[in-house]
Amino acid sequence: MKELVEVIAKSLVDYPDEVVVTEEETSKAIELKLHVVQSDMGKVIGKQGCIAKAIRSVVKAAASKEDKKVTVDIVEKQ
Q1: Which listed CATH number (3.30.300.20, 3.90.1170.10, 3.40.50.620, 3.40.50.2300) goes with 2-76?
Q2: Is the overall model pTM greater than 0.70, yes or no?
Q3: pLDDT, mean of each 10-residue run, the chain (78 residues)
């Protein structure tokens, strides 16, 4: 999952080297945090959040095989 989100995000942003994805896994869920620079936030979120929704849909479809809930949070890189 982590690699999938990373590949998608890097293709969207102006600074692909600054994209970092962290993963926290529990027994029932996986939480992915997508860290991008502030100037790339709009590119990853999209108008009315449509790109963010699409990323979450793709990840959810890929995670359906593992029977785990996956969440994707987009945060500004510090």
Answers
A1: 3.30.300.20
A2: yes
A3: 93 94 89 95 94 94 85 90
